[in-house]
Write the structure tokens for this entry.
Amino acid sequence: MLGWLIVISLADGDAPAKLDDVRTLVSWRCGIGGLDWIDRLVEQGQAKFESGNGYPTRYRSIAAALLPLVHDGRPPEHRGFDVLGDDYFTPSGWVGDFTRHPERIAACAPTDHLVIEAWDQS
């Protein structure tokens, strides 16, 4: 486990979202611990675990619960720890490749169903 690729998209069946899909609202890479914020949403009843084993792990929520977490152009903070490999170092809380589509986000209604996919980056 090296971290996660997170993709938040408009719900459209069970097919995994693609980064270049018009349904994709936000995506980013993060280190280990990068699912802390999703776990909190599930505990609060604002998101639901659907399935998964990391390829991907899938959750559902609504726009009103998810989109405020990325409104400032950054993903939710997460805990984690430093990861040191043979030829890489990932610091705790690392985030990379953050992509946000403001025009798609603005078109969402608060009750729109969204999917969060977390892809294991091992």
Notes: The mean pLDDT is 87. Residues 4-120 form one domain.
